[in-house]
Write a structure and sequence with these properties.
Strand content: 15-25%
CATH class of the largest domain: Alpha Beta
Structural class: alpha+beta
Number of domains: 4
Radius of gyration: 29 Å
Oligomer: single chain
CATH superfamily of the largest domain: 2-enoyl-CoA Hydratase, Chain A, domain 1
CATH topology of the largest domain: 2-enoyl-CoA Hydratase, Chain A, domain 1
Length: 536
């Protein structure tokens, strides 16, 4: 009996052990079939094999960076790897400042040209002017300098000095300026001025750490100048910080209104963002958008549309409804990973479908634009056959999700003459203004007094247009006189805008270009409709 029990116990033990091993293996397969550690080991093996056996020497860091980029590209188009060399630049863009001398510049024909000193910056303080040519930096020639070299030589810690040698039109000898580097603001509100006695205009180029405060200051200034209506331009604004989008939207909404909410797989990604209430809740508002308006721009325009607070004019936005968080890596690089989707107040997901082809994904706004019909879209009847999910605004208007923000009034941007792109590529306007106008800028500033008076009174002469044409032909631009003469109105506008920018900065530029901007001009006629939508 004892022998039987002993044999039974041994057999049972072996059986149970086998079953245990089998179950354990199956459990491991369930939990480790896509085990992260196994995949890391696989990657290490391949990297080691390449390093050991590849026919040429292997840059393992380059391979690792490429592998990370490739891995993230399998998630979505907005989860990306950021090399260490780019992290600082991106951080500065979002932070809204950097340490340097404070100039906007271009490299034209191997020459470092000051397009404009940044207002209040150290270069302006020592007397650097638009049109100055920097021929040396700290005694070393700057002729033939590259853009990367400009940043390396002119940027530096606050309080340090750099000496630049400048050639200026009308001055016989080069001049030396010693500049003490300081913190330079990177403005996200590019322009803010009264277009006429009632309408204020503000252009926001991105959403950085200072955007909310910049806009508040701009609106206060315009209000003091008599603003009764506002055009907020978000065209070609790629987005940025979500909290700044909330801050901007809050300026126009009562307290407690939902602006946006996010949903993700991890609990901390799920948040509601509501308005803190602003001083401009009764200000008639029109927002301009296009295919380059994305992310935070779509949060603002989507909230205004869903809450019937602003009229959206222009072309359908990009369609980026994903929220990224940036994670720093030990070597100074970083990864930006999508952690949530965001939704407008009505529940719309703005993210449009994306496939495996990034080229097709980024080209899609142009395809949407080419198929859009212009006209009134207040009740979004122009999208009725879109097949996208339907939502309702606060007042019951139909709107669509899953593909960006389609405007309440669709206006296609006017066609730009093809040769203009060649002019811009070869800096034809900039060179002409530098050669013919820069030396007269002080006289013109005194003569016209303001960009508003300049816009009203200054006329581009036929002689200037002839000189510009001759300069373009000499620079190798392929253009016929007939084609040029057909488009002289547009050419004259851009030339005038470049002159205005040279003297009055961005406000001068935008004041001129808006005169031939058909989307903006249409917006000016739509304030009665905007007031009706907003219940004002």
């Amino acid at each position: 009996m004892k022998l039987f029990k002993s044999k039974f116990s041994t057999v049972a033990a072996v059986f149970l052990m086998a079953v245990g091993i089998l179950i354990g293996t199956q459990i491991q397969n369930v939990f480790s079939g896509d085990n992260i550690y196994e995949q890391v080991e696989k990657f290490k093996d391949v990297l080691s094999l390449a390093d050991k056996y590849y026919v040429d020497n292997v840059d393992t860091q380059k391979l690792t960076d490429a592998a990370i980029s490739g891995m993230l590209s399998q998630l979505d188009p907005h989860s990306v790897y950021i090399p260490a060399k780019d992290v600082r630049q991106i951080s500065e863009d979002f932070r809204g400042s950097f340490d340097g001398v404070g100039i906007e510049y271009d490299v034209v024909n191997d020459t470092l040209l000051v397009v404009s000193p940044i207002a209040g910056g150290p270069s302006e303080m020592v007397g650097i002017q638009a049109g100055d040519k920097i021929i040396a930096i700290d005694g070393k020639s700057a002729v033939g300098i590259t853009r990367d070299e400009v940043q390396k030589k002119l940027r530096g810690p606050k309080g340090t000095k750099v000496t630049v040698t400048v050639v200026r039109a009308g001055v016989d000898k080069p001049m030396d300026f010693t500049i003490i580097r300081n913190k330079i603001p990177i403005y996200s509100v590019t322009a803010a001025f009264m277009f006429n006695k009632d309408v204020g205009y503000v252009y926001i180029n991105r959403f950085a750490e200072t955007t909310g405060s910049e806009l508040a200051n701009a609106l206060a200034k315009l209000k003091s100048e008599g603003m009764k209506e506002l055009v907020l331009d978000l065209r070609d604004n790629p987005g940025g910080l979500l909290d700044q989008a909330v801050s901007v939207a809050s300026d126009f909404l009562p307290q407690g209104k939902t602006i946006v909410y996010t949903k993700g797989r991890i609990p901390e990604a799920n948040e509601y963002f509501t308005s803190s209430g602003g001083a401009y809740t009764k200000l008639p508002l029109i927002l301009l958008v296009n295919g380059g308006s994305a992310s935070a721009s779509e949060i603002v325009s989507g909230a205004m549309q869903d809450l019937d607070r602003g009229l959206i004019v222009g072309e359908t936005t990009f369609g980026k409804g994903l929220v990224q968080r940036q994670f720093s890596l030990d070597d100074g690089s970083a990864v930006r990973i999508t952690i949530a989707r965001y939704y407008t107040p009505s529940g719309r997901l703005i993210q449009r479908p994306y496939g495996k082809s990034l080229t097709k994904y980024y080209d899609a706004p142009e395809i949407i634009d080419s198929s859009e019909k212009s006209g009134s879209n207040i009740y979004h009847t122009l999208e009725s056959d879109s097949g996208r999910p339907v939502y309702r605004t606060a007042d019951g208007r139909k709107v669509y999700g899953g593909g960006g923000i389609t405007p309440d009034y669709i206006v296609k941007l006017g066609k730009v003459p093809s040769f203009i792109y060649q002019f811009q590529l070869k800096n034809i306007f900039l060179e002409y203004v530098d050669n013919h106008i820069s030396q007269h800028q002080d006289k013109m500033r005194k003569e016209y007094g303001s960009s508003e008076n300049f816009d009203k009174e200054f006329k581009v002469s036929k002689g200037m247009l002839d000189e510009l044409y001759a300069h373009a032909v000499k620079a190798g631009i392929k253009i016929t006189r007939e084609d040029y003469d057909k488009n002289t109105k547009y050419v004259a506008m851009l030339l005038k805008a470049w002159i205005a920018r040279n003297i009055w900065g961005n406000d001068g530029w935008y004041r001129v270009v808006l005169t031939l901007d058909n989307q903006f001009q249409k917006a000016l006629t739509l304030f009665p409709e905007a007031k009706k939508i907003e219940g004002l």
